[in-house]
Task: inverse folding
């Protein structure tokens, strides 16, 4: 692990301490779990956005073969 220093507001620090006490974990562990969740959520949203951007990118291209004909050949 890599040591990282983070500044928290008094309210954040107090709430974090309460949560840590309530769930029986160290504050650092709770912070790491929260960061993992944020990374997971952000990564999923990034993938979804990339897929939405890519949707229909071949729609108006004239240089591509007729896919229905190609697909018909594959189904033989």
Result:
């Amino acid at each position: 692990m890599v040591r990282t220093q983070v500044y928290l507001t008094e309210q954040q620090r107090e709430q974090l301490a309460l949560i840590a006490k309530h769930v029986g974990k160290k504050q650092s562990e709770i912070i790491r779990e929260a960061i993992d969740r944020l990374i997971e959520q952000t990564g999923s949203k990034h993938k979804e956005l990339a897929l939405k951007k890519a949707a229909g990118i071949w729609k108006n291209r004239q240089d591509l073969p007729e896919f229905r004909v190609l697909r018909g050949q594959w189904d033989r």
